[in-house]
Amino acid sequence: MSPAKPPQRTPEQMIDLYWGEPRRARRGPQGSLSVRRVVEAAVAVADAEGLAAVSMRRVAESLGVTTMSLYRYVPGRQELSELMLDHVGEPPDPAALPDGRRPRLAAIAGAMRARYHRHPWMLDVAITGPPMGPNTLGWMEAILATLEETGLSAADGVLVLTVLTGYIRYDSGVELSMAKAESRTGISAEEWGSAYGRVLANVVDDGRFPALSRAVAAGVFSHPSNGAEDFAWGLEFVLDGVDALIASRAPGRPGGAGTGARVAGPDAAAPAGGGRGSPGQRGRGWLPPWGSPFGRGRVPAWPRAGRRRAVT
C-alpha cells in the first residue's frame, strides 16, 4: 500500500494564512489565541532550541493550550514553519536605507545576512512555494524598487533579486554550517583554517589536480576565513555583476534597450532545440528572498579559503 499523499494547499489557502484577517479568538488560560501568537511562540522555540524542536505539541505546551486547538489557526507544522520564516523577516525601512543603488543594495544584503545570524533555523525551513508573505514581499519590493530607475526590465530585476538573495543565503549557510560543525566536532574554524591547506597538500597532486595543486601551494587554503569580510568581498562581485548588467542594457549598447533587443523573461518561449534557456525560462524567476538553488535550504559546509588574503 503506497503511503498517503499529504493534503495539497492551494495558493488561495496560503494567501489566506499570510494575509487573512485574524481568526476568531479562542479564550484560553493565557488569553486569546491567534495565528500571530502561535507563530510567535513557535519562533521562540526555534530561537532557543532549533527548528527540529518545533512541533505542534511543543508550541501548544508553551502556550498552555491543547495541541488540537492550534489546528484552528495553522493547518500543520510545515505551514507553521513557513509563517515563522515570514514573521522574522521584517524588511528595513526604506527611509533608513542609504542613497545610491549600490550602497542601498549592500545595506539590504547586510540586513538579510543579519536575519540568518539572528535566526539560523531559517536555513532549515523547507521551501515549498513562491513568496506570499507580507514581509517577504517587502524584501522583494526593497530590491526591485532600488533597481527600478536603472533601465533594467522587470524580468532582469527579478533575476538580479534571485542571484543576490541566493548569494546571501548560500554564504550565510556555509558560515553557519561551519559554526554548527564546531559544536559537533570540537574543531574550530580557526583550526580548520590552519589545517585545511596542510591536509589537502597530502592528497592533491599536480598530476591529477594541477590547478588545485598550485592553489594549495600558494597557501590560499591555509588561512582562517573571516565571515563578515568574506561576505562583503563576495557581495562586491555580485554588485559588480549588477553594474555590468545595467551597463549592457543601456541604450545603444548591443542587446541594450535602445537596440530593440528582447530580454528573455519568465514568459519567453523555450529556446529551439530543447536548450535550457535563461533562468527566467526555467521557471526560476519566483525564487524568494530566502530561496536557494539547493531546494530544501541546506547547503554544504566546507572550509573556505581566506579569500581576501593574498599570499606572496
From TrEMBL:
Q: Does the keyword Signal apply?
A: no
What organism is recorded for this protein? Streptomyces lonarensis
UniProt cross-references to SUPFAM superfamilies, sorted A to Z: Homeodomain-like, Tetracyclin repressor-like, C-terminal domain
Compositionally biased intervals (Gly residues):
272-283
Q: Where is the composition biased (Low complexity)?
A: 260-271
Q: What is the lineage of its organism?
A: Bacteria, Bacillati, Actinomycetota, Actinomycetes, Kitasatosporales
Give residue ranges for domain HTH tetR-type: 32-92
Record-level Gene Ontology MF annotations: DNA-binding transcription factor activity; transcription cis-regulatory region binding
One Pfam family name from the record?
TetR_C_1
From which domain of life does this come? Answer: Bacteria
- Start-end of DNA-binding region: 55-74
**Keywords for this entry?**
DNA-binding, Transcription, Transcription regulation
Task: Name it.
Answer: TetR/AcrR family transcriptional regulator
| Xref: InterPro entries | Homeodomain-like_sf (IPR009057), HTH-type_TetR-like_transc_reg (IPR050109), HTH_TetR (IPR001647), Repressor_TetR_C (IPR004111), Tet_transcr_reg_TetR-rel_C_sf (IPR036271)
The region called Disordered is annotated at 1-32, 253-312
For the biological process aspect of GO, one term held by this record is: negative regulation of DNA-templated transcription
